Amino acid sequence: MDAVYLTRAGYQKLMAQLDELKSERLKISRAIEEARLQGDISENAEYDAAKDAQAHNVARVAETESKLANVRIIEDEKIPSDKVYIGAIVTLFDQKTQKELRYMMVSPEEADYEENKLSIFSPIGKGLMGHAAGEELEIKVPAGILKYKIVKIARP
């Protein structure tokens, strides 16, 4: 698996998700045991549902552990601060709305539009990557073309 770049906060959030998944595993085991006690498991819907939940949980735990094993903390990396790269906080001027926007460029695992965390693989994220402050860009998105000027690039 490739490196997974996360902020420290993103790493902590992923660790908390893993803990939650592991505690969920115990609840699922109890549900399987209760379903077994009901007798014949060949036509037991509760047992089947619990086994499906267990398989889903095992897969999610494995996926989360794999991501955690490959995490690289953005703040620890030597990433240039003069251009838009992962971890950058980018201030943009939207030439259509005449408003400033601010986004933090993050990996897909941390992307959250409500928190202004933009995936580097989103259409806007891809369009911004590698550009410097002062540049004017036209970025094609499904809704059309967005016109931005990069006002400022900062690092947390």
Provide structural commentary.
The chain is of the alpha/beta class and 156 residues long. The chain has helices at residues 8-36, 45-69, 123-128, and strands at 4-6, 71-73, 89-94, 99-106, 117-119, 136-141, 144-154. The strands form two sheets. The protein has a five-stranded mixed beta sheet. The protein is elongated.
- SSE topology string: EHHEEEEHEE
The CATH topology of the largest domain corresponds to Chitinase A, domain 3
Q: Count the domains.
A: 2
Helix content bin:
25-40%
Percent strand: 25-35%
Provide the low-confidence segments as ranges.
none
Structural class comes to alpha/beta
The CATH superfamily of the largest domain is known as: Transcription elongation factor, GreA/GreB, C-terminal domain
From the coordinates shown, what is the CATH architecture of the largest domain?
A: Roll
Q: How many H/I helical runs?
A: 3
Shape: elongated
Q: Could you give the order of strands across the largest sheet? A: 5-4-3-7-6
Mean pLDDT: 91
What is the level 1 CATH name of the largest domain?
Alpha Beta
- Sheet with the most strands? 5 strands, mixed
DSSP E strands, number: 7
Rounded to the nearest angstrom, the distance between the terminal CA atoms is: 27 Å
